[in-house]
Amino acid sequence: MTTAYEAVRAELVQQPATWLVTGAAGFIGSHLVEELLRLNQKVIGLDNFATGHLENIVEVRDAVGDAGQNLTFLVGDIADLETCRNAVQGVDYVLHQAALGSVPRSIEDPLASHRANVDGFLNMLVAARDVGVKGFVYASSSSVYGDDPNQPKVEGQEGAPLSPYALTKSINEQYALLFARVYGFHSIGLRYFNVFGPRQDPNGPYAAVIPRWIDALLNGTPCVINGDGETSRDFCYVANVVQANILAATTQNPDALDRVYNIAVGERTSLTELYELLRDGLAELMPERSDIATLQPVYGPFRAGDIRHSLADIGEARLRIGYSPTTPVAEGLDQLLPRSCQCSPV
């Protein structure tokens, strides 16, 4: 039986469109660009390299071959309205991924997070509204659930934000709904739950846990687990996120618009369990590195602003946009770890 995403992919190949991907040189953005190019789409990528890397775009071009000719890459900052206006010219669909991520980063520098995540988001909304794009999809975050204790997380049952980053994403959602009510400009928000996969940067103080721990294990250095290890997350492989973005942008279901959806797998993994999956997976792939199998984590204090547990109810996304995650955590790690080993230290 053909899935909703398979049907959409087939339609796009036959009827190419023009897409703008903001944050195109970032982790998630570059995967969106790659998939769209493989589907014969014309893609405009926008990034200011605050957290993205030109190497990601180079890798995408190498991966897609001749289809790379359909990519136009723009260097610019979404906090500048004219940059946004220029980027949306002739665009059918916008996949807005550009943002300053990381809860700790936002706590240390709330002004920078607000500028990128709120001012930049509003600029993109205005620019896209003014040219009348067919579809506008934006990246929200599971952090908007804040101190809501309920599990799993269900859209419409949010708590108080626990960080400036969470607040910026909540503001995004409110602005998107306001634009629908006031201007009739429709959009869809996707609340990502701990996305992981290739091209995720392991470096810097705000690196996500999976690439940071893989890098540490390959270098034989201890992994630091914040808290007691029982903190849990709904880790989501990037291919699932790519599917959700394209389904949301192209949906023909009017009841799907002007909503936010949890994008995850619906599985909860504790940090200790995650560490063991990474360590044991790398040890199996690299028998010559006998040291990896014996490495033990170091437990540190809980991190300010972190949610204790996070598990998604993905029923609304299944119902309204046809989202059906194809890659659970273990399978995602099976795809990621061999690529990580290829880049391992000598």
Helix-strand layout with pairing:
Blueprint: H1 4-14, E1 18-22, H2 27-38, E2 42-47, H3 54-64, E3 71-75, H4 81-87, E4 93-96, H5 103-108, H6 110-131, E5 135-141, H7 164-183, E6 188-192, E7 195-196, H8 209-218, E8 224-226, E9 232-233, E10 236-237, H9 238-250, E11 259-263, E12 269-270, H10 271-285, E13 298-300, H11 315-321, H12 329-342
Parallel strand pairs: 1-2, 1-4, 2-3, 4-5, 5-6, 6-11, 7-10, 8-13
Antiparallel strand pairs: 9-12
Helix pairs in contact: 2-3, 2-9, 4-6, 6-7, 8-10, 10-12
Describe the structure.
With 346 residues, the chain is an alpha/beta fold. It has a domain of 239 residues: 3-Layer(aba) Sandwich (Rossmann fold), CATH 3.40.50.720. 43% of the residues lie in helices and 15% in strands. Helix 4 packs across helix 6. The protein is globular, with a radius of gyration of 19 Å. The model has no long low-confidence stretch (mean pLDDT 94).
Assembly type of the chains comes to single chain
Question: What spatial form do the alpha-carbon principal axes imply?
Answer: globular
Number of strands: 13
Runs with pLDDT <50, length 5+? Answer: none
Q: What does the main sheet amount to?
A: 7 strands, parallel
Secondary-structure element pattern, one letter each: HEHEHEHEHHEHEEHEEEHEEHEHH
- The proportion of strand residues reads 5-15%
> Could you estimate the helical fraction of the residues in percent?
40-55%
Total count of helical runs of at least 4 residues: 12
Largest sheet: spatial strand order? 3-2-1-4-5-6-11
Task: Give the class-level CATH name of the domain at 4-195 and 237-266 and 311-327.
Answer: Alpha Beta
Distance between the termini: 46 Å
What Rg, in angstroms, do the CA atoms define?
A: 19 Å
Which architecture of the domain at 4-195 and 237-266 and 311-327 does the CATH hierarchy give at level 2? 3-Layer(aba) Sandwich
What is the fold named in CATH at topology level of the domain at 4-195 and 237-266 and 311-327? Rossmann fold
Mean pLDDT, all residues:
94
Provide the structure class.
alpha/beta
Say which CATH homologous superfamily of the domain at 4-195 and 237-266 and 311-327 is assigned: NAD(P)-binding Rossmann-like Domain
